[in-house]
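Why do we bother with a discrete structure alphabet at all? Because it lets us treat a fold like text: something you can write down, compare, and reason about line by line. To make this less abstract, here is a complete entry for Polysaccharide export outer membrane protein. Read it the way you would read a sentence in a foreign language you are learning: slowly, and without expecting to understand everything at once.
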Amino acid sequence: MRRTIFRATAVVVFSIAAAAAGAYAQQPPADATPAIAKVDAPAGQASSPSLQQRYPRYIIQREDSLLLTFPVSTELNQTVTVQPDGFINLQVAGSLHVQGMTVPEVTQAIQQAYGHILHNPIINVDLADFQKPMFTVSGQVGKPGQYELRSDLTVAEALAVAGGMVMTSAKTQVYLFHRTSHDWYEVKRVNLKEILRGKKLDEDAMVQPGDMIYVPEKFITNFRKYVPYSATTGTFVQPN
């Protein structure tokens, strides 16, 4: 329904193709399952990804609709839509930036906004309409693009939805990008060839909303497990 939040993910995968042209020696990671991994981050960014929440709350996005109800002051009840700049307009309380917040955070911010008008305001905030979960598939697939995540899908199933892979050799290298925090992606390599043979089926990861699957044209022997969300060319491939 909305594609603006995925533009940055597309930049990541399409910019790394040129960086993958060289051959690099395989270097196994020091720790196979780190909770936090440090990488060389661009200037101005955090030096390491933060811990991923086990049950992350939905993040308010542009064009989401919020139902605001005031049990005591019902005349202030309203439904608001998050504008392209991330603001909502409140009755008699001005504008409030809510993009990037969770519903509990929005509730607290609205209570503060009405604090100078109402005494101890009681406000309920509900999502009336929100972004449908999506995932992106790019690279060497039949139908690259963005797809709605309507049910539980594994990486193999998601690739089938995207028309399958156009290069047989690519089956050994499929990359799943999963956003672990506001600033970082976790990158997981999936050997689809083994999975289709009935081996290592537990490695066929479940696709989550906002995930990106990338099938590279050229073989990549070494890559970074964590990359910044605003990644630039070369941050996915790990040179010697």
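What the structure line is telling us, in plain words: The radius of gyration is 21 Å. The chain has two domains: 4-24+132-228, 65-129.
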